[in-house]
Specification:
The protein is an alpha/beta fold. The protein contains 9 helices and 10 strands. Helix content is 31%, strand content 26%. The strands form 2 sheets. It has a 6-stranded mixed sheet, sandwiched between helices. Helix 4 packs across helix 5.
Length: 264
């Protein structure tokens, strides 16, 4: 029996991610926990995908495998033509550094380094010169609207600004894909929409974005919804009513950055 392959819209042709019959089993003592049960899915270059599902549905395990943080028990994961499951630890680390940009709920910024220094961190693992590293860091911060705060430390920034620094850090190596794990979980409503606006703008420029979220309102900014249940894909649908952050933001009350910093 051939498993159903979930694919992107027909007008998007370049396959970025190809996953077939993915299985992940964790051993807890003598008990086997089946986190993923034969998942098959394709993601094309330039998509904006929201991954959803209840706790224990398999979505976090799926994202860990996408991010090369874990390997499947069975099945294959092809990222831009590379079979990730056959790579060594060092090769996986290189993939994570060059092809994947991570954005987390908790920002994960170094508290004693500036916004620019935080953004530059991924570049230290390559041959980039100091001058080029600084230039790329500034460019990434300018892309997320923080060109005037490059020397600010995390405790001098609001929650939304810290998340923008994290997005800039994810962008600095020009990755093939951005993986965002609950990126708005620690943010207020308006700031959440602002962050989704950044992801939408990046996606409009061709960057592939995959995010995990528990919030349907946040998922509605993505163009495709994949819902997990019991280790399998329950539904995989194109979102025909994608919300546009730049329009939604007009209906929300203003929050001054200084006020948000004080509240934080």
């Amino acid at each position: 029996m051939i498993a159903d392959i979930h694919t992107a819209p027909k007008d998007i042709k370049v396959t970025l991610i190809q996953i077939e019959h993915l299985v992940k089993i964790y051993q807890l003592g003598e008990v086997d926990v089946h986190a993923l049960r034969g998942v098959s899915v394709n993601v094309s270059k330039g998509e904006f995908v929201a991954i959803m599902g209840a706790s224990g549905s398999g979505k976090s395990t799926f994202m860990n495998i996408l991010g090369c943080l874990d390997k499947p028990t069975k099945g294959s994961y092809i990222l831009e033509g590379t079979d990730v499951g056959k790579l060594s630890r060092d090769e996986l680390a290189a993939i994570r550094n060059k092809k994947i940009g991570f954005v987390f709920q908790g920002f994960n910024l170094l508290s004693r380094t500036s916004a620019l220094e935080n953004v530059e961190l991924p570049l230290f693992y390559g041959p980039t010169s100091t001058k080029a590293r600084k230039a790329k860091g500034i460019e990434a911060l300018e892309r997320v609207g923080l060109g005037d705060r490059i020397h600010h430390y995390p405790n001098q920034l609001s929650g939304g600004q810290q998340q923008r620094v994290a997005i800039a850090r994810a962008l600095v190596n020009d990755p093939s894909i951005i993986l965002a794990d609950e990126p708005t979980g620690n943010l207020d409503s308006r700031t959440s929409v602002e962050v989704m606006g950044i992801f939408q703008e990046l996606n409009n420029h061709g960057i592939t974005v995959i995010l995990v979220t528990h919030e349907p309102d946040i998922a509605d900014f993505a163009k495709r919804h994949i819902v997990f249940r019991d280790g399998k894909i329950k539904t995989d649908k194109i979102n025909n009513r994608t919300k546009v952050a730049s329009e939604v933001i007009k209906e929300l009350p203003l929050i001054d950055d200084d006020e948000e910093e004080a509240a934080a």
